[in-house]
């Protein structure tokens, strides 16, 4: 289909995020993973995606792919320490029947990711951003990871690349994926860990009218914020969810969730699907 073919598009895709796979030694007293097995939760999400009708054209993994650092927050986790978690992710993704595109989140480790996923990164710490097309629509994956920080940032070189990429695809309806949220969702302790240069990113996106949606992860809850024709969606996690009510950190084990997006011509529609963790094969 040509770049002008978006009006004939008819497909779906899924966004699932904050998979948080962890392999490593857990520090004494750490409660992480004691209430929910993140790999099992992801397996359940993948089984549900695989039986969707029609089948999604592709999946986007929204970052925090792995997080062994959560097992012991006093330890410095090296690329070697991170590798087993990415290998587990690779293994859990094998049954997924559609292609998968991955983003970096604040818990990720670029060097270990590039090594295990065998990307064509030019440098061990190279940021992982790129774009792709499907049926006349354009999709952009950004990298907001700042090593050692919970909040995110899109560095200048990436903003320049984004500006050029959007200019080259001006005729195509565009969806942008980024791990960190740009606009507050109303949960203060999460909102202070958003994208530090959200204004700069928003200015670039607004200078290209084909940009429709930004789809984010990070906040472990589904939200929808619309501002002057631009929409920010966040997707709940495949594992732990964060309270939408409490203004202090409060996490719940599950339900495993993912977002389904339908594209029909130039129209987009979406919903978040929450699974029943205690009934892992009952969809
Ligand atoms: Fe996360």
UniProtKB/TrEMBL annotation:
This is Calcineurin-like phosphoesterase domain-containing protein. GO terms for molecular function: hydrolase activity. Coiled coil: none annotated. SUPFAM superfamilies: Metallo-dependent phosphatases. Residues 12-221 form the Calcineurin-like phosphoesterase domain. It comes from Candidatus Entotheonella gemina. Transmembrane segments: none annotated.
């Amino acid at each position: 289909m040509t770049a002008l073919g978006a009006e004939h598009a008819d497909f779906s895709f899924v966004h699932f995020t904050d998979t948080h796979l962890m392999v490593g030694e857990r520090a004494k007293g750490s409660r992480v993973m004691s209430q929910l097995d993140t790999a099992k939760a992801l397996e359940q999400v993948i089984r549900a995606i695989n039986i969707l009708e029609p089948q999604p054209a592709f999946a986007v993994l929204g970052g925090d792919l792995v997080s062994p650092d959560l097992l012991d927050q006093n330890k410095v986790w090296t690329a070697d320490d991170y590798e087993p978690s990415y290998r587990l992710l690779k293994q859990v993704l094998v049954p997924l029947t559609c292609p998968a595109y991955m983003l970096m989140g604040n818990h990720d480790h670029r060097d270990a990711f590039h090594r295990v996923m065998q990307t064509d990164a030019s440098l061990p710490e190279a940021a992982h951003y790129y774009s792709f097309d499907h049926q006349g629509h354009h999709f952009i994956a950004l990298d907001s990871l700042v090593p050692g920080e919970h909040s995110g940032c899109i560095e200048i070189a990436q903003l320049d690349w984004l500006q050029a990429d959007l200019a080259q695809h001006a005729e195509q309806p565009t969806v942008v994926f980024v791990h960190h949220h740009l606009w507050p969702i109303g949960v203060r302790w999460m909102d202070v860990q958003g994208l530090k240069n959200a204004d700069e990113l928003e200015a670039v996106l607004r200078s290209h009218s084909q940009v429709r949606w930004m789809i984010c992860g990070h906040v472990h809850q589904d939200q929808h914020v619309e501002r002057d024709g631009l929409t920010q969606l966040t997707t709940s996690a495949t594992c732990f969810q964060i309270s939408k009510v409490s203004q202090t950190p409060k996490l719940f084990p599950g339900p495993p969730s993912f977002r389904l997006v339908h594209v029909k011509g130039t129209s987009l529609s979406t919903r978040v699907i929450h699974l029943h963790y205690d009934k892992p094969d009952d969809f």
